[in-house]
Amino acid sequence: MWRKISSTCWGVKLFTIYQSVDNGKEILASIKGGDPNDDDSVEIRVPFSPTSLAGYVALSQRALVIKNVLDSNELIDMHPRLQFDKRFSEAKDWKVKSMIVVPIKDEILLGVLQLINFQGDREFTKSDLKHAMMVCQMLAKQFRSSLQST
Questions:
Q1: Are 54 and 87 in contact (CB under 8 A)?
Q2: What CATH superfamily is the domain 2-148?
Q3: How far apart, in whole angstroms, are the C-alpha atoms of residue 53 and residue 113?
Q4: 3-class DSSP state for residue 20?
Q5: What is the DSSP string of 104-148?
Q6: Residue (of 91, 98, 43) closest to 75 by Cα position
Q7: Cα Rg, the chain, nearest whole Å
Q8: What proportion of the chain, given as a percentage, has pLDDT over 70?
Q9: H/E run at residue 89
Q10: 4: which DSSP letter?
């Protein structure tokens, strides 16, 4: 189901929705979509840090549109220590290129949305960012109501 949503609704190869962890220092991948061979048993925890794109967005609470995640100059222009953590994509043999990473927040950070395209796919635009931010607003409302009901 999520593979179909990622390709038809968002026009992306992969996406990840991270949720904030109670310790306030990391995010946890709660929904992953796009990879038919994905093993949901693999837990992905990302610290708030510029050593990964999702971690940086969680830390800064600022959205990123990245044309080429492998271009270190593009990343350094955003933050001097910003890096793309290649471990996961290399393990899956994914040729990741373009990304949009957006915080999911209400009054506080609730999570991070990460949209991913591969080499050969189109680069993301400001219009894509606008749509991703609207999705994050809806996710924030859902996350907030889930928190209030527990």
A1: no
A2: GAF domain (3.30.450.40)
A3: 11
A4: strand
A5: EESSSEEEEEEEEEETTSPPP-HHHHHHHHHHHHHHHHHHHHHHH
A6: 98
A7: 14
A8: 85
A9: helix 87-92
A10: H
CA distance 70 to 86: 9
pLDDT of residue 6: 46
For every residue of 28-87, DSSP letters joined together read: EEEEEES-TT--TTS--EEESSTTSHHHHHHHH---EEES-TT-HHHHHHH-TT-----H
Confidence of residue 78 (pLDDT cuts 50, 70, 90): very high
The token pair at 89 is 């994509």
pLDDT band for position 72 (cuts 50, 70, 90): very high
Over range 72-94, report the average pLDDT: 91
Note the pLDDT of residue 86: 87
